[in-house]
Amino acid sequence: GGSFGRTSLNVKGTALTTIPMFIQAEFGDEGLDKWLASLGAEAREVFAGPVLNTRAFDVTTYLVEPMQRLCDVLYGGSPKGAWDAGRFSADHTLRGIYRVMVKVGSPSWLVERASRVMTIYYDEGSMDVVERDSTSGVARLSGTSVAHPMIEQRMAGFMERGLEISGAKNVQVRITATMTNGSDFTEFAINWE
User: Fold this and answer.
1) pTM above threshold 0.85
2) 65-74 and 80-95 are packed helices; what angle lies between their axes, rounded to 10 degrees?
């Protein structure tokens, strides 16, 4: 994983609360302690207690680096940790606060609303649906100064699980272009039955 300086991009606390919950559920107290010990002092202080949902946090310090530590410490360096954390976040978020939204809408309706989900968590950037039909969609993330595989993997996992919750079967989310590699946008190609 790459490292870069702080940016102006903030992530809302609601996006962070599920990270320690996920680690606790998957790896128990031992895994949570191991992960907390791997964090920088600022992040460790925030994640050791209850995360304030309403507060804005620097995305690099409180999301990218903790996701990278999760992957390094508990997934042997695999980005699957960020993907799985995104799936867990979708489970928590879409079964809780946004349950009605998911139950009412079809998978393609949910893809169309990806941009709204984006603004719930981040204070910059947009997610635009550039193609959509009854079994597929293409969403593009752009307009953000932060591009990082950890964020992209987490978003892809969130989309995959969100579509499963909405009733889609055999969901596949592929990252087909990425700002990390110099593209103007990160593109998620999504298929389902």
Assistant:
1) no
2) 120
